[in-house]
Specification:
This protein is α+β, with helices and mostly antiparallel strands and 141 residues long. The protein is built from two helices and four strands, in the order αββββα.
Length: 141
């Protein structure tokens, strides 16, 4: 039979791993949005390339449970946006400037998804804390 206090601790630890993973995802998304309009520092060079976070599941032997971790952050291999701007210092010999392959709408959608997942994990921790408090109140009376 499982120990109730260890179940509470496991629930909070699992939710905490979700919080860490989503916080890392938000960091990557913010980096993508911040660089959405940056260009190369050299003429004709490649600009910032969008980054895509990945997640992995791992067995935490101390908790005896699966937890989520932020995996590798991979570069998005889609093409850069190209605009004809011959006066731009980042323009190549034909006057084209490469812009990052960051789509603000996609980033905002990912951010919303990360936010909802983060909030769900916070709710798990809050509910677990309330259950612990109620258990303690019952034991005191």
């Amino acid at each position: 039979m499982a120990n109730d206090s260890s179940d509470f601790a496991r629930s909070m630890a699992i939710a905490t791993s979700g919080l860490r993973a989503q916080a890392g995802r938000m960091r990557v998304i913010s980096e993508n949005i911040a660089n959405a309009d940056s260009t190369s520092s050299t003429a004709g060079g490649d600009p910032y390339r969008r980054k895509v976070p990945t997640f992995s599941s791992a067995l935490d032997r101390t908790l005896d449970a699966q937890v989520v971790t932020l995996g590798k952050i991979k570069p998005d291999q889609s093409n850069f946006r190209v605009k004809y701007e011959p006066s731009n210092p980042a323009a190549d010999a034909s006057g084209n400037v490469k812009y990052p392959n960051v789509n603000s709408v996609v980033e905002m959608t990912d951010m919303r998804d990360a936010q909802r997942s983060y909030e769900a994990n916070v709710n798990i921790i809050s509910a677990t804390r309330r259950m612990i408090q109620r258990t303690l109140d019952i034991l005191k009376s």
